[in-house]
Design goal:
The complex is a heterodimer. Helix content of chain A is about 85%, strand content about 0%. Chain A has helices at about 5-30, 40-50, 55-75, 85-120, 125-130, 135-175, 180-190, 190-220, 225-255. In chain A, α3 packs antiparallel against α4 (about 85-120), α6 packs across α7 and α8 runs antiparallel to α9 (about 225-255). The radius of gyration of chain A is 21 Å and the shape is elongated. By secondary structure, chain B is α/β, with parallel strands linked by helices. Chain B has one domain: P-loop containing nucleotide triphosphate hydrolases (Rossmann fold), CATH 3.40.50. Helix content of chain B is about 35%, strand content about 25%. In chain B, α8 (about 180-200) packs parallel to α9 (about 210-215). The longest helix of chain B has 18 residues, at about 180-200. The radius of gyration of chain B is 18 Å and the shape is globular. Classes of the chains: A mainly alpha, B alpha/beta. At the A-B interface, α5 of A face α3 and α5 of B.
């Protein structure tokens, strides 16, 4: 395989970032002008939101369980086992809930978006849609982006809740902690800044997952092999960008709220 | 509106001037210029990879040229926004090389796609879909999905989708490509029928010379509902040819001019 020249490599990536930015801008602009395909938005909400519910709940619940189990062992050494609830709720709410839910949704839906739109692209269905007077950004991209942003927010809340519940079950039935004390400490641990941080992340993550998945789908080239490549890239890039943005949001909110 | 009507009747439907486009440093089209008059059927011939499909997409504004001017219905489309292009495309029907039917929709929804987008009443849309499907003799396939159709049937559905809004210009991108000779003749018959019954201006790409000459030497007999050879070896005057090779136009003229051309490359291509 020949090596690409550095200038070609830079040009290709700069153009990709430019195309991605244009796609994002057009998707956002389409939200504020008719026609809005509400039927497609609800259909995507069903596929992305309710479709991801089992895996999200499963991941959230067992993460909470493991978190309680692992942290209790360490906290016990300092005689602070009663802090288990506090640790579980802060970890779930600020970091693990949003990130794990994002990764689950990315693996399930960024790949789905990239492969679905990619297949449409290579079979000229996207061009046919444009030739029939319909804007594919409005018809295909906007419903996926709006549905992912909206549903990831609620999926994250659910994941946080079942995570805390899972931690509670482990704490009560396996570690012998007092249930009331556990849930009281989880509640008392959280302050406004933590909730804002935890609720802000899924909005950004949802946007990244859906726009990156759609971008790779819409820019697919080269038949079925291209569709496979777009799918892999969609998941890989969206997960990577999501983790970078996670760090930036954490740093920003720590700067603002001091924790 | 009056100007638009005037434009429909008077000026050329399609006018390309010095159009060039490059992909990955390969000049796919190089200084292409030609004009298509109202009612004309222009057949685009040439070897594979000569830029024919790219030219078709340029004409419908699906891609933009690097240089040159493209006027459709008298309007410059190279400087249009996507929203303006959607307006222009309302008057253009396009049949894609591989049909490009929406595989998650049945035949009725595919054919009615544009009508549904325009908010046409369900009953009216159904009636017009049935008419369009009857035109392509596929009325019974209305509930089927694209995966259940043969290649030829998919092309016919694609033609029905293109003609349902009675466009002023139809673009056929290799409608007979990859089909057997009998099915190809059925598709060419539909193109001839559309040309002679609706008198719609058309641009058609084909790799099959025999299809191109059938188009030029036949007319549609509405009484017998079939395609007939034009008597006395006549040719249809509204059917003209354009031959592309290596991104350049090597021939632009009538059927007789093409068959009597002394150009060595053209003679070898036609033989």
């Amino acid at each position: 395989m020949p090596f690409a020249s550095p200038s070609e490599f830079v040009k290709t990536n700069v153009i990709a970032v430019q195309d991605y930015s244009v796609l994002c801008a057009r998707a956002i602009a389409a939200l504020f002008s008719p026609p809005l395909y509400l039927g497609d938005i609800f259909s995507q909400m069903d596929a992305i939101g309710f479709g991801s519910l089992p895996i999200t709940i499963l991941a959230g619940f067992f993460t909470g369980c493991v978190l309680a189990l692992q942290s209790a062992t360490s906290l016990q050494q300092f005689g602070a086992i009663s802090m288990t609830g506090r640790l579980v709720s802060l970890s779930m709410m600020k970091e693990l809930g949003p990130v794990l839910t994002g990764l689950m949704v990315s693996g399930r839906n960024a790949s789905g978006m990239a492969s679905e739109l990619g297949s449409m692209k290579v079979t000229e269905q996207i061009d046919a849609m444009r030739a029939l007077g319909v804007d594919p950004i409005r018809k295909l991209v906007l419903p996926r982006v709006s549905a992912t942003v909206f549903m990831l927010f609620f999926l994250t809340i659910l994941s946080d809740a079942v995570g805390v519940a899972g931690g509670g079950l482990v704490s009560v039935f396996m570690l012998g902690l007092n249930g009331t004390s556990y849930f009281h400490s989880t509640y008392r641990a959280l302050v406004y800044g933590d909730v804002v941080q935890g609720m802000m992340k899924p909005i950004f993550f949802g946007f990244i997952i859906s726009t990156v998945g759609c971008y790779f789908g819409m820019s697919t080239k080269g038949g079925t092999q291209g569709v496979g490549k777009a799918t892999t890239q969609g998941v890989g890039v969206s997960s990577g960008v999501m983790l970078v943005v996670d760090f930036l949001i954490s740093r920003l909110t720590i700067g603002i709220f001091g924790r | 509106m009056a100007d638009e009507q005037q434009q429909r009747q008077d000026g050329p439907v399609l006018e390309l001037k010095d159009v060039s486009i490059t992909f990955d440093r390969d000049k796919v089209l190089n200084g292409v210029s030609f004009v298509v008059q109202p009612g004309e059927t222009r057949v685009l011939l040439g070897p594979a990879g000569g830029g024919k499909s790219v030219l078709m997409k340029l004409v419908n504004g699906l891609i933009k040229p690097d240089t040159g001017s493209i006027k459709v219905f008298g309007q410059e489309i190279t400087t249009m926004t996507e929203a303006q292009l959607f307006e222009m495309r309302r008057r253009v029907g396009m049949v894609f090389q591989e049909s490009a039917l929406f595989d998650s929709m049945n035949v009725e929804d595919n054919v009615a796609y544009r009508l549904n987008e325009e908010g046409t009443a369900t009953e009216e849309a159904h009636k017009r879909v049935q008419e369009a499907l009857d035109f392509v003799e596929l009325g019974k396939a209305i509930t089927k999905f694209p995966a259940e159709l043969s290649g030829g049937m998919r092309r016919r559905v694609s033609i029905a989708r293109a003609i349902i809004t009675k466009p002023d210009l139809i673009l056929y991108d290799s409608p007979t490509g990859g089909l057997d000779p009998i099915t190809s003749t059925t598709i060419v018959q539909l193109v001839v029928k559309q040309r002679d019954v609706s008198h719609t201006t058309a641009l058609m790409i084909t790799h099959r010379l025999q299809d191109a000459f059938v188009l030029a030497t036949h007319r549609f007999d509405t009484d017998k509902n079939e395609m007939q050879p034009i008597p006395d070896h006549g040719v249809d005057e509204n059917t003209k040819f354009l031959v592309l090779n290596g991104g350049k136009i090597v021939f632009d003229g009538s059927t007789l001019e093409l068959t009597h051309s002394e150009d060595p490359w053209l003679k070898s291509y036609l033989s």
